[in-house]
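Hello,

Our lab assistant flagged a job as stuck in the queue for most of the afternoon. It eventually completed. Since we weren't sure the result was trustworthy after the delay, we are filing this so someone can double-check. Below is the sequence as submitted and the structure that was eventually returned. Let us know if re-running is recommended.
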Amino acid sequence: MTDILDLPDWNVLTSRLDDGTYTIEAEYTLPLQACTKCGVVGKLYRHGPKVVTYRDSPIRGAHVQLAAKVQRYKCRECGGTSLQPLGGVEVDRRMTQRCVEYIKTQCMRDTFTRLSQHIGCDEKTIRNIANDYVQHMNTQFRPYLPNWLGIDETKIAGDMRCVLTDVGRNVPIDILPSRDQDTLARWLAAFPDRSTLLGVATDMWRPYLNVVNMMAPGVPVVIDKFHVVRMANYALDKTRIRRGKAQGVKVNKEWKRSKVLLNKSAANLTDKQSFNLDMWLDNDPEVAQSYQLKEDFYALYNLPKAEAIPAMESWVQRVKASDVAADYKDLLSALKNWRQQIVNYFDHPITNGYTEALNGMTKVINRNGRGYTFEIIRARVLFSNNARAGQSPEWFCVSCGGLFFEDERAVWLPVESGDTRRHCLCKECNERSITHAKEFYDNLDEFFESTLFSE
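-- returned structure --
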């Protein structure tokens, strides 16, 4: 008989497929040696079997349950009864250890709802296993202090959280429960030797600057380039809105639809867009003036420091003397209050681009999960394969329905026309299918026709 169970020391008695569920009847071959009540060896006798059902990891597009024939024993010494211990299963969870490990891996990649559908168990079971796994991973987790630290914040589970990354290697380091000054200071204080820290990329949030100056004096703080240049875009948008209202409702609506022409860099415009933009600027001198100031400010970041600093001072004077100075008030204030941190970019050209991308990923996780706790979202960012953090698994196993990375697949499979997923057999499913590979491939069409794992 084909050993679809593929667990050591188990003997498969029968297997059947009913309504999308494989039921495998099997018995564990290693007997109980000592009484679990009194500990006496050699005084046990068989007292009849008992069938206990355990959930197993899915395979071949179906749910799997193990109907274990568990032997009961009675002790001649104390009269107590004991059940035969089973290898490869977690009795408390009524699951095989393989299934629990599958859940631990996939709960960091897929939604709890889809995972419960794959396995055929309640979503609460998935959630409980995931919470226990996260607690275990937290006890093992050891963040490190990188050379180039990125600090930002994002809203997770209703509150603003501090996100810390290694912007030199593009790796997440930690997500703190709060972005306040004391929380960040305690995190940095956990590293007695902070001499390895060469620079910090952040936005214009004063507590971050205060903590770095206090905990790592002398380490340059670099204001992220994106946060600065977008203020020039905001200023230009203020000019457009103000002048659009002055032109009337019809013109204002038309300008709003065409604002992409102002926001894009001149070098990225098509010939048609450039023509339309030139007509717009020719008809409104203030918008033209604001647009040119925005473009000139962008150009500052392409200059070496020796040229950029005097050019920035000249640009500030031009803004103050222009008709749109009020629109650039926020940017002028930032250049005054954060001048040194903005100028530091020319010595240390680091950005928080990766940190911002990571923030976007947390929002996607939160949206897909619909109710994930902060601890679960943090775990999915930090513990979902740290070596390639921020990436999403691209391969879909047609057997178990799990999501996998390139090196976790064993067999590539062709996809149907219009299916954007990359189909494969994962290593686990491939090992369980190897003894009946011909049967598996003969029935491959049934996997694609099945709706069990359809999204």
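-- support follow-up --
The delay was a queue issue, not a problem with the job. The result is valid. Confidence is low (pLDDT under 50) at residues 435-442, 447-455. The longest helix spans residues 225-247.
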